[in-house]
Design brief:
With about 1300 residues, this protein is an alpha+beta fold. It is about 45% helix and about 15% strand. The protein is built from 46 helices and 35 strands. The protein is extended. GO terms for molecular function: structural constituent of nuclear pore.
């Protein structure tokens, strides 16, 4: 039944969509309206004017003097969201309260003439909490953003929280502009701000956005973005030659769909899509004025002057229609309705922002203004200002002298009409109109966060019990006028008061709204306690029964849809309309199959409370209007809270607060209470014939009349079914009433303190619960809330008794006998708590546990477990928690979902899982408490640390030996959270290995992998342990590279401990290879860390990457070694990969030598230091690549060093370096010999180079002859032969070239003799 109320709420929403009234059908010609008398019916015969002028406030006297001094420009406007009027006079800005005409704020810090002003919402995080709005002020030179705050009217302190009523607070403007942006010569035509804080403006033919943001280096910045012209226009100015400018004159934002509309001076309409989240901007398309005029004239064939000019665009929010997007209004008052959806989109659900993105721009309906004929205008006028608010459109007409005519057109009295009908009210307003705004209390609507879109809001007819009078502000040059619009309820009230319940105006009014709505409005008056309604209450009751009718059973065709009453089609008539009639209006939310307009008919369908099961044989049950009106009125009472979250958590302190204010709660309780009282006192749900009352009988029945036989036997089933439906409704009314009373008690007794007594999971669930949820789950949630209230005052007998009495008084359904038994068990626990250990105490605890087990699903488990804990009855906590988990999930849905790793999208599974978690939380909370006591410095009475540890282990064992696998899982997780895994590895637990596999599959958490490989290693399953370690090493995570290498090393040890099978050897080789690459990766990381010290850009980021995962040799080369020119790493990678190409390897060695020699070249170290460092590098690399000599090309290395030594050092530098690097003189001499004699003629042709070679070899020969015995015989013999050969060649060369160096020749001859003598 609680969910059935949603059907009635949905009924109101479905008939509210404007598309139904426009009679649009896909793939048909554009329809027109407004040219027939029935489009604008004359309601003057009702005797009540719908819209009238309530009051007028002149412009404040302080501003009149300022106006007289005006030099160049004045403008005015309304900010209804903050109840303020604004006026600019030249460069001065004024704001004042639109309700009180006071609180005049003055800002004169602007030097240029102000052209436009708008109000923006601050972006989150940019401003302090006392800044609520931003004033966007456009001048002739700049745009300024001024911060706006409000002061408490009493304390004069800044307000930091949300402001419920801006009428009662004072405004202040921060003097210094927050942002200021130069316009660079642009003149702004219009401003527009979105609900998420974006600011748009137009100038010339371009749409701009003022974007303020914060950067890392430059702080807060502000810039303008051109959304109309791309970069191509600035790069190729010639493009503008082929385009003509069309000035933008109006911007209109649809915050419900995130779409921006632009109207240009020529009448073109541009559509900009702001995206699903409202944070992007892209131009979708343009609908040219010629298209508009052509299509309208083609459809209407009327005087072209009707469509001479478009003057206004008005977005139609998704709260009014999911399918109609906006309307364009011509200067002659013609309203042209557009959609941005394709025909295929009609009939599909529009619940997500993605589904309402613009796909096209099409005209779907044209509506002519009042006082127009099909082909000509009756009088000359021009519309220059328009206000559209839901079902009311107000147009300001011109030209006028001292007054402006207003057309106020409202569809509020035609909710049941199948086409768009409006009542016209003509008014005259003094002065020129500057702005108009709706100031009704429920007009400001907060749209849901993306990706959802707001639902269509019910019509005024469905909301009139909340606000029976609607108001509008009209700002003119003579001040501000307040217009008032009577809702149908107010009109109904006037008719009954002035003309009576059997008057002709009432008959006319009933034809407008139908019997169902007449019954609903009668209910509103019957339930009202106002004095004005008291005098007509009797008439309202009579009307309710007169129009309420009776349920009927009608025959149907057995081959027909059971939702139809019978084979014949019932033509719609407002006099017999019920929900069944009205919901038959075709809505695109329900059907996608087109229905021809020419042959449109309406099948009378079942009420939302009567589904297909309401078929008895060949009879279809049709509920009475009385039945439907009772359901409908209750759904409207709870309209705003039925699907709203009941509480929320404050951001500043995390406290839980009621989402329903105490005033709103009192109002709703009063309305439901009045409804309940009216039903009882007037027997509104009585199934007896209303004839008794209509004949003047006095109705005093306070309960249902349940056993009255209907007049016709055929209708007995219909009466019985309606009776059952109404009984369920009455139960829902009672539950809703009591739940709201309970909520009121919670608020009155420190809401956040009482709710803090709930277990955290229940608290989190409660933050998402609606009133519908509480009614649906009253037997669990409400019991928990009541228990917390009682627990809060436990020990204070007087207060507890008073609370219990009040609960029994206002919540008798919620506080039952079972609750009393639970309360008795609670008292037993309190008594046992203060008793000494004894047999009597144990008996009390046992008896309390027995009572609690019988009512296990009624108790507040958390509170009971708290009492058991204080009584030191730990076994009872475990027993109750396991019993509750079993009861709450008797079908083991949560366990099945856990084993299958299933998502909890299924509602039943999700609920079962949540209930089990709540039960297990009692056990883990107990373990937390015992754990803390094992480490406590102080000792609780009767529980020292040793005893606490014993009880902790005992409780753990009690759970782990149970058959509840999910309870085991909860305790496993608790143990791991407290780093007690040794407790689990010490002995086998039957669910532990399964648990580890499950957590690894679900979470991929390294800790569970660690536990599993340790588990395998302990059980000598070495291969599984090695594979897990390999997986850990390769897994991307936050662990360090050294940890990955450690994993690989440990994996290698494990696989070495396993038998040497072929598979194991392959795994061993794989691990060894990965370990080798990982060590190169470590060398790379070390090299990059050195580069960080050298301030190489990008090194920090690369170091982080090297820690995040293992790389392949190719990745190490391409992403690190090559970009950062890490020559040592390149060489290691080439060697590890076994990739040898002589040119590549030699190039790498050139890079190595250049890097090592660079400090000497830069004079950062001496030749001696450089020699020793390079020798050390060569020695290390020769050792590293001793088994791969091709990656250590010694001849190439010596060639490079030979040239370097020639250029920068003395001849002895290279032989000494070779000696330190353990490079033999024979190797060096071979390289020098080859270079001098064969490879490079430079050494012979350049005298200095030749002298260097001579000195170098002399140094080598002298070292050789000084101690030839230090070389092995073979090397000595080879070096001797090479030396003598090279000496001979050198001396011959010297003689041939006439080299004049007697000293050198002598040394060479001397050395030749000494070498010849070496044995």
């Amino acid at each position: 039944m609680a969910g059935r109320i949603l059907d009635y709420l949905e009924h109101d929403r479905l008939q509210a969509d404007l598309i139904n009234k426009l009679k649009y059908e896909p793939q048909q010609e554009t329809l027109i309206s407004g040219i027939n008398d029935r489009d604008y019916p004359d309601l003057s015969s009702l005797g009540v004017q719908e819209i009238s002028i309530l009051r007028h406030h002149a412009i404040p006297d302080e501003l009149r003097d300022q106006l007289n001094q005006m030099q160049s420009n004045v403008s005015m406007g309304l900010f209804p969201e903050i109840s303020r009027i604004w006026m600019t006079i030249d460069s001065d800005l004024f704001l004042w309260n639109s309700k009180t005409n006071a609180d005049l704020a003055y800002f004169d810090g602007i030097t240029s003439t102000i052209l436009k002003v708008d109000l923006a919402t601050p972006k989150p995080g940019f401003f302090p909490q006392n800044i609520h709005k931003l004033l966007v002020v456009a001048t002739t030179t700049d745009i300024l953003l001024l911060a706006v705050g409000f002061l408490d009217g009493t304390t004069r302190h800044p307000i930091f929280s949300a402001i419920p009523a801006y009428n009662d607070v004072d405004i202040f403007i921060v003097p210094q502009p927050t942002f200021k942006l130069s316009l660079d010569g642009l003149i702004i035509n219009d401003l527009c701000c979105t609900s998420n804080g974006r600011i748009f403006f137009c100038a010339d033919d371009c749409l701009y956005e003022l974007d303020y943001h914060e950067t890392m280096f430059y702080g807060r910045q502000c810039k303008k973005i051109n959304h109309s012209k791309s970069l191509l226009y600035s790069l190729v100015p010639a493009i503008s030659i082929f385009t003509t400018k069309d000035t933008m004159q109006q911007l209109a934002i649809d915050n419900s769909r995130n779409i921006l509309y632009v109207l240009t001076h020529k009448g073109h309409i541009q559509v900009f899509d702001l995206g699903v989240d409202g944070r992007v901007t892209s131009k979708f398309s343009t609908f040219y004025f010629e298209q508009t005029q052509h299509e309208c004239l083609l459809s209407c064939k009327v005087d072209a002057s009707f469509f001479a000019k478009l003057v206004y665009l008005s977005p139609i929010l998704c709260t009014e229609s999911h399918y109609v997007y906006f309307e364009a209004i011509t200067s002659k008052g013609v309203r042209i309705y557009f959609t941005c959806l394709e025909d295929a989109d009609f009939g599909t659900s529009k619940n997500l922002q993605e589904s309402v993105r613009p796909r096209t721009i099409r005209i779907i309906h044209i509506r002519f203004p009042p006082e127009s004929q099909p082909f000509t205008l009756l009088r000359q006028f021009s519309v220059y200002s328009v206000l559209r608010s839901n079902e009311t459109t107000i147009m300001a007409l011109g030209p006028g002298d001292s007054e402006t005519p207003l057309w106020a057109m409202s569809a509020a009295n035609f909710a049941s009409s199948r086409e768009l009908q409006e009542n016209l009210t003509s008014l005259n307003i003094r002065g020129v109109i500057w702005d108009m705004a709706d100031i009704s209390e429920d007009v400001l609507f907060k749209f849901p966060a993306e990706p959802q879109i707001a639902r269509v809001r019910p019509l005024i007819l469905a909301r009139q019990h909340i606000n029976s009078i609607l108001k509008y502000h009209v700002l003119t040059s003579e001040g501000i006028y307040t217009l008032v619009q009577n809702t149908p309820l107010e009109t109904f009230h006037h008719i009954i008061t002035q003309f009576g319940s059997e008057s002709k105006p009432l008959q006319l009014f009933s034809r407008l709204h139908g019997n169902l709505e007449i019954c609903v409005m009668s209910l509103m008056i019957i339930c009202s306690d106002s004095k004005s309604d008291a005098s007509i209450r009797t008439n309202a009751v009579r009307i309710f029964f007169t129009f309420g009718g009776e349920p009927q059973s009608v025959y149907r065709n057995p081959h027909e849809n059971p939702r139809n009453i019978h084979g014949n089609v019932l033509e719609y008539s407002p006099m017999n309309a019920s929900i069944a009639d009205i919901t038959s209006f075709r809505s695109p939310l329900r059907a996608s199959t087109p229905i021809g307009l020419a042959n449109r008919s309406y099948n009378v369908q079942g009420s939302p409370a009567f589904d297909e099961n309401s078929v008895i044989g060949n009879l279809q049950v049709r509920p009475s209007h009385r039945h439907d009106s009772l359901f409908l009125y209750f759904s409207r009472i709870v309209l705003d809270i039925w699907q709203r979250n009941m509480c929320f958590r404050r951001r500043d302190n995390g406290q839980l607060c009621s989402a329903i204010s105490i005033d709103e709660l009192d109002t709703t309780i009063a309305r439901i209470g009045a409804f309940r009282k009216a039903v009882d006192e007037n027997a509104l749900i009585s199934l007896s014939s209303p004839q008794h009352f209509m004949n003047g009988g006095n109705v005093t029945t306070s309960n249902f009349v349940r056993n009255v036989e209907p007049a016709h036997a055929r209708d007995s089933a219909a009466y019985e079914q309606e009776k059952q439906s109404l009984l369920e409704l009455y139960d829902t009314i009672i539950l809703s009433h009591e739940i709201l009373f309970l909520w009121q008690i919670l608020i009155e007794h420190q809401f956040h303190v009482i709710l803090a007594l709930l277990p955290p999971p229940i608290i989190e669930q409660l933050t998402s619960y609606t009133l519908l949820d509480l009614v649906h789950k009253y037997d669990t949630v409400c019991v928990d809330l009541i228990t917390c209230v009682v627990k809060h005052y436990m020990g204070d007998d007087a207060t507890t008794s008073a609370i219990a009495d009040k609960l029994r008084s206002v919540c008798p359904t919620l506080f039952s006998s079972d609750d009393a038994m639970v309360l008795k068990a609670t008292e037993y626990l309190h008594r046992a708590r203060i008793m000494a250990v004894s047999k009597e105490r144990d008996q009390l605890l046992s008896e309390a546990l027995s009572i609690l087990r019988k009512s296990i699903q009624k108790i507040n488990l958390q509170n009971i477990c708290d009492l058991l804990q204080k009584a030191r009855f730990f076994d009872g906590i475990v027993e109750l928690a396991l019993a509750r988990a079993e009861k709450d999930d008797a079908k083991k849905l949560a366990l099945t979902a856990y084993k299958k790793h299933a998502e909890t999208a299924n509602q039943l599974v999700r609920e079962a899982k949540n209930r089990r978690e709540i039960a297990y939380r009692c056990i883990t909370d107990l373990l937390d408490w015992l754990y803390d006591r094992t480490h406590a410095m102080t000792t609780d009475v009767g529980l020292n640390p040793a005893l606490a540890k014993s009880e902790l282990l005992r409780t753990i064992k009690l759970v782990l030996t149970s058959d509840d696998e999910l309870a085991n899982v909860s305790v496993f997780r608790w143990i791991l959270d407290h780093n007690m895994e040794d407790l689990l590895l010490k002995e086998r637990h039957r669910f532990f290995e399964t648990f580890l596999h499950h957590e690894i599959e679900d979470l991929q958490n390294d800790r569970y992998l660690e536990l599993l490989w340790k588990y395998y290693e302990k059980n000598e399953n070495y291969i599984s342990a090695a594979k897990l370690l390999l997986q850990l090493a390769e897994k991307p995570s936050v662990q360090t590279l050294q940890q990955r290498i450690a994993y690989l090393s440990h994996a290698l040890m494990c696989v070495q401990s396993a038998p040497e099978t072929k598979t194991n050897l392959e795994l061993k080789q794989e691990i060894q290879d990965k370990l080798d690459v990982a060590q190169i990766q470590a060398q790379t990381k070390e090299a990059l860390e050195f580069e960080v010290g050298q301030r190489i850009t990008g090194s920090n980021i690369s170091i982080e990457e090297l820690n995040q995962r293992l790389f392949t040799v190719s990745e190490l080369y391409d992403r690190f070694a090559n970009p950062f020119n890490l020559a040592h790493i390149k060489l290691a990678i080439l060697a590890c990969a076994g990739h040898y190409e002589r040119e590549i390897v030699e190039n790498v060695w050139v890079d190595i030598l250049k890097k090592e020699l660079r400090p000497f070249e830069r004079n950062e170290e001496s030749a001696e230091q450089s020699k020793r460092r390079i020798a050390s590098v060569l020695k290390n690399l020769s050792t590293q690549y001793s088994s791969m000599l091709k990656f250590y090309p010694i001849e190439m290395i010596l060639r490079e060093l030979l040239m370097f030594s020639f250029r920068f050092t003395q001849p002895e530098w290279l032989p000494e370096l070779c000696k330190l690097a353990r490079i033999s003189h024979a190797t060096l001499l071979n390289v020098i010999n080859n270079q001098y004699r064969v490879v490079d003629p430079f050494w012979k042709q350049n005298k200095r180079a030749q002298q260097f070679i001579i000195n170098l070899v002399i140094n080598i020969f002298e070292d050789f002859v000084a101690d030839p015995s230090k070389l092995p015989p073979n090397e000595r013999k080879a070096l001797k032969g090479t030396s003598l050969d090279f000496l001979s060649f050198l001396m011959m060369d010297l003689h041939t070239d006439g080299f004049n160096s007697g000293t050198a020749s002598q040394k060479l001859r001397l050395l030749e003799g000494q070498i010849q003598r070496i044995i």
